[in-house]
Amino acid sequence: MKLLSSAKINLNLKILGVTQDNLHELVSDIIPIGIFDEIEILENNKNIIEFDKKELNGVQTTVHKSLELIKKFNPNFDKKFKINILKNIPMEAGLGGSSSDAGTILSYLCKEYELNVPPYTEIAHFIGSDVPFFVYGSAAKVEGIGDKITPLKGITNMDLLITVPKFSLGTKDVFNQYDKLNERDTFKYQWKQIDIYNDLFDAAALVQPEIVDIKNDLETKLNEKFYMTGSGSSLFAIIDDPTKYKELSAENFNLQSIYITKKIDCSFSQNDD
User: Which domain holds residue 86?
Assistant: First the structure.
């Protein structure tokens, strides 16, 4: 079976506080977008998970954790799988690639083999706070530690310009810096009655100051408003005319990559071929 697992962007991200377990509580409107990792799953005599990115092989990943959690809630399920993952979604860029892989695989296996789906709270605690969103699979308002999900309605078409810097930002580094901030002033921009903002931007800028220069350069030269998704490092703009940017070069902005994409309806799809 071949699957596509999508990236996401946080249209907004509000940090509410910290739980007794030292997890951050948040509110965020999240949408799936048209950038995909490619996953192949085959039944096997043992679990083998291989990535095209060598640094991910031989270490415990979100995909390993998703298989462990499935087993915990389905102790009699004894199938094993060989899973190959082609990483097209930039890593440590706020686009949710590793969470998407885990959520897509968990959703597919539970549906295909009629398994018990672990509760969102367990998924968030054990794998990561973005994973329940990808298990849910559509635009959503996500709250708590990522475990409270309600449908996000009213967004039909949304064209996006996604820019990925050459540097990455570690989620833990950004959240640790956020916890040290004394003043947290987040500018909000409204798009069709949806507030666009990110409480983590100032913290990300302290971890990697270059993100401020990139944001300012993009906004000045392209005359668009750019916002960070997740804990960074990617910046996005909601655009009216995607054709204007077909010839846009990442090199001109010292970026790793640029994507012209849009909101999609579902965060994963499958191909039986």
Answer: 2-153
